[in-house]
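yo

u said u wanted the structure for the complex thing, so here. seqs first:
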Amino acid sequence: MDNLKNLRGTVDLLPDQLIKWQNVEKIIFEQLSRASIKEIRTPILEMTELFIRGIGEGTDVVSKEMYTFLDRGDRSCTLRPEGTASVARALIQNGISSNPLHKLWYMGPMFRYERPQAGRQRQFHQLGVEFIGYDSVRSDVEIIAIAWDILGKLGIKDLNLEINTLGDVNDRLDFQKSFIKWLEINKKFLDIDSQNRINKNPLRILDSKNSETKKILENAPRLFNFLSEKSRKRYSDLKKQLEDLKIPYLENSNLVRGLDYYCHTAFEITSGALGSQATVCGGGRYDNLIKQMGGPNTPAIGFAIGLERLILLAGKELEVQRNTDIYIINQGLIAESLAMDLSRKLRNYDLFVELDLSGASLSKQFKKANKLKSKSIIVIGEDEASNKEFIIRLFDKSNDENKEEVISFDNNIKLENWINNNLLLK
Ligand code: HAM
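structre next:
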């Protein structure tokens, strides 16, 4: 039988790789807590209908990329391709109107059947942040600032924030009419993908990567010219407030985003270091989604950061793990049992303690402690065990006599003093 393998577009994250993930996640969690954003967890599996209604049938995500199947009860289910629709559903279902303002975040796996390449997977992870019930331009600016600051806290440089406005529903309908007319006239100059989108999702054509199509589009009607006074003012206020915060931005009138629910502010943060999958963060306003899904009229804005891309961008310093504080070397049956007991006691001091369970020779255990760069070691050999004591020593500083103590197992005060002086107060 062939060896079993993971599915294409999915990856195993191994312990060494996860050090960086965990460090990145820790910085993110701290930053989110500082901004008083609360976590929400929704199921990974949802009714397919949620995404058809939420994201839009004409989008690539819904029409080509979803992992959809019938469960044993013949219900159509989908592995979530993104988190916004699920958050909207969860809030409607749990009574959004009793508290109309929410600042929420989520983190977890998402699934899209795309062609895998560097920075693009079929199972990938997102951090999402959603501000529900907020409609002021200030909330758009706070959302962008939060995304920007998370990337900044992770030390990621050379990022571009691109912004655009998609106007409200009426602005877009007006634009769409004349845009479709123009597209029909110029259809033969467009690439096949764009031709197919004319009736399904014309706005996405603006986002085409085809160079010929891009050139032709330079003469197409501009969404900006169809915006109402109010929408234009909203956009100029957004730019002004970003400038006040000294968050640099580029305007990109072709930035339309791949999901149907957006209106007004749309933004992406990209990095040249990521190659063709350059977008690390994408988001925007979605004032109609919650109503369209059966909830009360509720404005909202949010973003999602792709964690795989974030990990690619984050620096090497985040690959470092806190060293073991104490490595417990032991030999013999009595020593093993005393060592086990001691390791549990020491972890209560918030120390990183590794208990050697190998049963190998003392010298091999020393070598392992050395390799791990443990700050200190405890040795319990057969002699120590029979004397009910252990040796504790700061590793690497063996010539400093004060750094080694023999402590009896019942002398908690001596142990605590040693830990405080040598490990905790350092
Ligand atoms: P999105 O632009 O589809 O937006 O995805 C956001 C980010 O997820 C992308 O910028 C990218 O970093 C990452 N991403 C997407 N697909 C993949 C993939 N196949 N492999 C690796 N990373 C990927 C959304 O999902 C919206 N829900 C964002 C949002 C929240 N808008 C408002 N609130």
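DSSP finds 15 helices and 16 strands in the chain. The CA atoms of residues 167 and 231 lie 6 Å apart.
cya
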